[in-house]
Amino acid sequence: MAEAEALQVITTVDDRDKAHELARALVEARLAACAQVVGPIRSYYWWQGRLEEAEEWLLQLKTRPELYDELEAALRARHPYTVPEILAFPVARGHAGYLEWLRRETQPDADGDGGRARP
Description:
Elements: E1 6-13, H1 16-28, E2 34-47, E3 50-63, H2 68-78, E4 87-91, H3 96-105
Antiparallel strand pairs: 1-3, 1-4, 2-3
């Protein structure tokens, strides 16, 4: 199987403003070409032996596979959760024009400063 051309990375946070702050910071840093904030959503999960229910916002991030480690590190550094959900899904196929745009917008020099801005 060929390596994925792109990844969709998801995470959730419990605050709308934090979701937008993360989305903006990761796109500005060129770690993601696109970030979408979806929500509010209702989540149910086990945490510390209890069934929890929470209102959350879902972030969907589009990036290149080689940027995953840097993207995850940036998310973990800014994420409000002790154990954040950070999952990456390979994009098996996609519109060629979109995938080219994604690659172009996640290049270190895409913004003309010669390097990736840090979130």
